[in-house]
């Protein structure tokens, strides 16, 4: 049951994003002022724990967003072929993932 | 009593380019339903007006219409309840129009048929070739009873915002009936219905807006059935769904002799 499995992943990433986005927001915006300073950004970028954290945040955020977009497109354009839509979205997702991954990995 | 103004949608495919509204004055009387008003128009003012009705008591599901912008059964809608003396009647949205107020319900029936809305039996394939009678507890009956009250009137499909944007979306009535049979212990066809409800235009497109349940004139709650179906499909997908116990076959009726002999005829036949 492909659609059900995709939806289960949507739910899991949605719940996990509460934690990941919440932590990210607290660290970047609600913490003490130094967190946005260059040295502290660079420190986090050099830490493997934070690297893994941001890669997971990126993966989950991308999946959740792209799956949501897929649902809206499928409903708005019901005659669209599901296979070609999925193919296009996977390519777009991989391209964004590759580009976004480059930034923290190159800073590491 | 004050007269009523009926604004009725007219449309004859092939003649009219698009539907238009026509006004009629109908005398008010106590207990008048919208269907009574339409029958009055047909019998006294314009016999070309077309609408569908049969039982006139909310049972057959034929007279679904858009009444003052809400999908309702015309025979089940007393004019007094509308709190207005202008009544606008159109054919059900989300369905093609055959003529005037007659909506083409074929898309509903096709989608309904596609979800296997009957008891599937592993042994024999269908209920017509029963090998035994099956017992059912009150609790088992309650698990699907409200969903079994559906009269296939199509009001829920007319109210559903997803059906209006995606014509291929299975919709509340078929999905609700799919769930109704999946909960029945006599049925073994849940898997095949799950596969059908799992399409890109299936159960996961439902937004849970609940418009279907609000519109249903029979107290069925299709939105609830859809949520329960989603849950069953998630559990099944994660292999956590408990396999329902097979239905208990009833004891065959014992052969018995009539206790009292039938007396001989005393009158010559
Ligand atoms: S709850 Fe689902 S099926 Fe019912 S009206 Fe809303 S979208 Fe349609
Ligand atoms: S669920 Fe209710 S509104 Fe929908 S077809 Fe059945 S009786 Fe009509
Ligand atoms: S005429 Fe049968 S439900 Fe209205």
Strand content of chain A: under 5%
How many beta-strand segments of chain B? 9
How many strand elements of chain A?
Answer: 0
| Helix/strand class of chain A | mainly alpha
CATH class type of the largest domain in chain B: Mainly Alpha
CATH architecture of the largest domain in chain B: Orthogonal Bundle
Q: What is the helix/strand order of chain A?
A: HHHH
Give the helices and strands of chain B as they follow along the chain. EEHEEEEEHEHHHHHHHE
The protein's oligomeric status is heterodimer
Strand order of the largest sheet of chain B: 2-1-5-3-4
User: Mean pLDDT score of chain A, rounded?
Assistant: 88
Helix content of chain A: over 70%
Q: Report the radius of gyration of chain A as a whole number of Å.
A: 17 Å
Helix content of chain B: 25-40%
Short description:
The complex is a heterodimer of chains A (108) and B (269). Chain A is mostly helical and 108 residues long. Chain A has a single domain (2-107), classed as 3 helical TM bundles of succinate and fumarate reductases (Up-down Bundle).
Features:
heterodimer; A: 108 residues; 3 helical TM bundles of succinate and fumarate reductases; 4 helices; B: 269 residues; Ubiquitin-like (UB roll); Fumarate Reductase Iron-sulfur Protein, Chain B, domain 2; 5-stranded mixed beta sheet; two-stranded antiparallel ribbon; binds FE2/S2 (inorganic) cluster
What does this structure look like?
- The complex is a heterodimer of chains A (108) and B (269).
- Chain A has helices at residues 2-30, 38-45, 48-76, 82-107.
- Chain A is built from 4 helices and no strands.
- Chain A is mostly helical.
- The termini of chain A are far apart.
- Chain A has a single domain (2-107), classed as 3 helical TM bundles of succinate and fumarate reductases, CATH 1.20.1300.
- Chain B has 2 domains: 3-103, Beta-grasp domain (Ubiquitin-like (UB roll)), CATH 3.10.20; 106-252, Fumarate Reductase Iron-sulfur Protein, Chain B, domain 2 (Orthogonal Bundle).
- In chain B, a hairpin with a 2-residue loop joins strand 6 and strand 7 (102-103).
- In chain B, the strands form 3 sheets. A 5-stranded mixed beta sheet of chain B has the order 2-1-5-3-4. A two-stranded antiparallel ribbon of chain B has the order 6-7.
- Chain B has 269 residues and is of the alpha+beta class.
- Chain B starts with a strand and ends in a 20-residue tail after the last strand.
- Chain B contains 9 helices and 9 strands.
- The radius of gyration of chain B is 24 Å and the shape is globular.
- Classes of the chains: A mainly alpha (108), B alpha+beta (269).
- At the A-B interface, helix 1 and helix 3 of A face helix 9 of B.
- The complex binds iron/sulfur cluster (2 copies) and FE2/S2 (inorganic) cluster.
- The site of one iron/sulfur cluster has 15 residues of chain B, from helix 5, helix 8 and helix 9.
